[in-house]
Description:
Elements: H1 4-20, H2 24-35, H3 45-57, H4 69-72, H5 79-93, H6 102-111, H7 124-140, H8 149-161, H9 169-187, H10 199-206, H11 217-239
Helix pairs in contact: 1-3, 2-3, 5-7, 9-11
Amino acid sequence: xxxxxxxxxxxxxxxxxxxxxxxxxxxxxxxxxxxxxxxxxxxxxxxxxxxxxxxxxxxxxxxxxxxxxxxxxxxxxxxxxxxxxxxxxxxxxxxxxxxxxxxxxxxxxxxxxxxxxxxxxxxxxxxxxxxxxxxxxxxxxxxxxxxxxxxxxxxxxxxxxxxxxxxxxxxxxxxxxxxxxxxxxxxxxxxxxxxxxxxxxxxxxxxxxxxxxxxxxxxxxxxxxxxxxxxxxxxxxxxx
Length: 240
């Protein structure tokens, strides 16, 4: 079965080649300079990223991370239910779950001691229990702890200094998750030494900011999904 992430990267390489108007020989020389290989089809995932970065450096427009359609189309929910779903997605994107769907969350809720058959039937006390259970699970998996009020205040002071709008605790949790995902990738051996191993370099290219706290929440969502897919690929490769 074709790897959709590989196909997406190859397509992006060819799109950027067309944007730059590179002829065949120049294109091959760019690839070779960036990766040591003259064919994108022969590259590893990391090499394809290097090729994309080089094409961007040469002037190809830098695409903004797309927010997954699944995130755009979700119906409005209570704040507590949305928080539970966000924690479930955080576990999934941290590599602690195989299934990040809401149906899987409902199955977990049903099999746990919350006495409800699905999240939508949970009252406020049950939702609080679900949230605390998911928080504890994420911390056990090595993920970030939830931000305190002081954390939110300090981060918003940084954002204010950069001329950015304040954010709530949920957004701060997203920024912390991005940092934790990057550490996880480093532990998994996914990051190479040098500038490309730096989170600020990655964010500058993906989100056009130098640190997670300066991301917009929607952009953070997209980056979390992207890093989550990377973590899952690394886990799959390690067990292959």
